[in-house]
Amino acid sequence: ALPGESDSRNFYLPRQPSTGSLNFATRRSVNFTSRYGYVRDGINYSQSGTNWDSSSSSTHFLQTELYKTLGNWRLLTGMDVQWQHAYSINYIGIQQNRTYPAVFLASVYQKGNTDFQANFRWESFEKVGVGNLTYVQHLHKWVSWNTTVNSSFRRPTLNDYFWNTQINSTPHYESGYGTESGFKLKLDESKLQ
Questions:
Q1: What value does the mean pLDDT of the chain take?
Q2: Which helix (H) or strand (E) holds 15?
């Protein structure tokens, strides 16, 4: 609700999330995976002094990945596409669509008790890249030391883009940077029961 207004919301999920995948492997340590996902949700709500309205949205997701193992290296590359469709009488134009393509590349190098990991993702719609560098030192079979440096971003939602307000500026994605370091404890769940 807008400041000073109240609303009554009824959340519903007309369809549960669904996924499907296709996997293919060769004798040369190459794996190909393609997966499709779909999710749909909606909201019924009313604001003080206005009629009932409903909003609904759906997201289709298609991802293709190619894995390759070369000695101590594991490589991954691929692309994915999200297609979002949303409806609300409060949207400019009632119905709105967005398509978000992206490509990504990741690698892991393992030697002895040490792992080095790196990944990069390019979001084509926003023309922004995000990445991650991770160092892992395995101190014992159930404890390791992890250090990570990463960048991140969050895109505006369809509500941010199309909600019918007096604001004329185009929303911009949020970006950030972070780092973390610490011990990771891995326990055998079968021994905890």
A1: 79
A2: strand 7-25
